[in-house]
Amino acid sequence: MTMTHRERILAAIRGETPDRLPFVPRLEFWYRARRRKGTLPGELRSLTLMEIADRLGAGYYAATPDFTEYSGDVMADRALGLPRLAVFPHRVTLQVERRVLKCGQETVVEYQTPFGTVRTATVFTEEMLDAGASDPWVAEHAIREPRHFRAVGYIFSHLRVEPQTSGYLALRERVGDRGIVVAVASGNACPVQHIMAELMSTEQFFYALHDCPAEIEQLAEAMEPFYDRVKVIAAASPAEVILLGSNYDDSITHPAFFRKYILPALRDYVGDLHRRGKYLLTHADGENRRLLPLYLEAGLDVAESVCPYPMTRCRLEEILEAFAGRITVWGGIPSVLLCPGSATFEQFRIFADGLVGCYGHHSRLILGVSDMVTADADWDRVQFLAARVAGIR
User: Fold this and answer.
1) Helix axes 202-211, 213-235, angle to 10 degrees
2) Which of 95, 119, 329, 336 could form a disulfide with 342 if both were Cys (CB 3.0 to 4.6 A apart)?
3) How many CA atoms within 13 Å lie on the side-chain side of 296?
4) How would you write the pLDDT of the chain (393 residues) with one tens digit per residue?
């Protein structure tokens, strides 16, 4: 019996063998960039992204939100790692005064706390927009001096977090059988990763972790109730699959760091979700080789946006072998192979034929383009992949 895209994805997450390989490419970056430049293929120019996925015969990607569907105040607190998207299962309300200043593509926000003012700035450059980017670049992080730790801690300890389901349910209704709408608990697995990824530059964070670890730990403790709350709300939401954590790399979120901070957060949340009959997905788009055994130890269900060789050191077969049929890989196609400037069509075809030949009936693979189909990807190659997976070629 022919399955829907949604049924195929869920079968792969459960470790069952779907009727054919699920193919769910993340097309939004390619679509935005081509639409902005007026270079969408003629037959696609009048179509929405969802209609393009339908025409392609692929699943609709809804594992991570499209930030460009939201604007204005809901993205003002992005530099705190607190975008307030309607599709999230939780709604965050700040309990401090803030002032938002817009200047072209830059957004500056000043937060007033009893421990001083916290200032952030985010920006979209023309290059980012041309590439189809959806998430602004943080030009000024919240924590730049030691005095900022207490002020940011005050902000996070004075948040109100409440459930919301209408946006999620509306998107799930729109997507229907085209795919799975993943509910986002947090793009970071734990408070310490949040501090590293959102609130400080990476260099400053690791200096601070060495020089003033007590301040990092105190801020993480102040943030913990927020994390506890968003995870509880997401687990109680209507979603079958919950996202917690993203953007790991074995040189930055290195194994010792991952084991101390990230692994316990993922492992504990997996247990809670499994008791509810739900699944944990994490966005694992970086260098993964030294982290693979830690993913297994965490017990997560889906490693999404997995990017193999030649864009990382790991080949897809190594990742699937390491996961031993216990974790579903969502990804597997290096985005560079879709770009004429990076690979010939013959190189791409050989890869696609080998991939489908080896894994066309794999029980733990959702085929996707890692991290996304980029602006310079060739549409003919995307179509070739879709047809090859469907057994037409």
Assistant:
1) 120
2) 336
3) 14
4) 799 999 999 999 999 999 999 999 999 999 999 999 999 999 999 999 999 999 999 999 999 887 766 556 778 899 999 989 999 999 999 999 999 999 888 999 999 999 999 999 999 887 877 787 777 889 999 999 999 999 999 999 999 999 999 999 999 999 999 999 999 999 999 999 999 999 999 999 999 999 999 999 999 999 999 999 999 999 999 999 999 999 999 999 999 999 999 999 999 999 999 999 999 999 999 999 999 999 999 999 999 999 999 999 999 999 999 999 999 999 999 999 999 999 999 999 999 999 999 998 889 999 999 889 999 999 999 999 999 999 855
Structure tokens at 280: 């944990």
Distance CA 365, CA 378 (A): 23
Q: Which among 281, 285, 294 is positioned nearest to 333, based on CA atoms?
A: 285
Tell me if the bond preceding 334 is cis, omega within 30° of 0: no
Q: Name the amino acid, one letter, at 124.
A: F
Helix ranges (DSSP H) in the chain:
5-14, 28-37, 49-56, 126-130, 148-157, 166-175, 191-194, 202-211, 213-235, 255-257, 263-275, 292-298, 316-323, 345-359, 379-389
Other beta carbons less than 10 A from residue 345's beta carbon: 13
Tell me if residue 17 falls in helix, strand or coil: coil
